[in-house]
Amino acid sequence: MAERSVLVGVFPEIVVLESGDQITWICDAGNLRVEFDANRCPFTSNVFQAPAGMRLQTGPPRAGSKPMGYKYRLWINDQLVGRGEVLLRD
Q1: Given pLDDT bands bounded at 50, 70 and 90, which one contains residue 36?
Q2: pTM for the whole thing?
């Protein structure tokens, strides 16, 4: 019988960023989309998308973003697969 391998990803619940840092996600399983609340997002956009196998980068937080937690949702091929939070530090 042939085996089919399944790679299960681990998504961190919390990512801590300094002011000059950025987040990078990569997913080989499908199209990746990350959504932050439109009214509470430290980045220039609140929605980030990338096709399978491509890096998805947020860029650094906007100047003047408050040091606090920012929640996001993570989707693969339009299926919600996780929720997380970015903690922005001074």
Answers
A1: very high
A2: 0.83
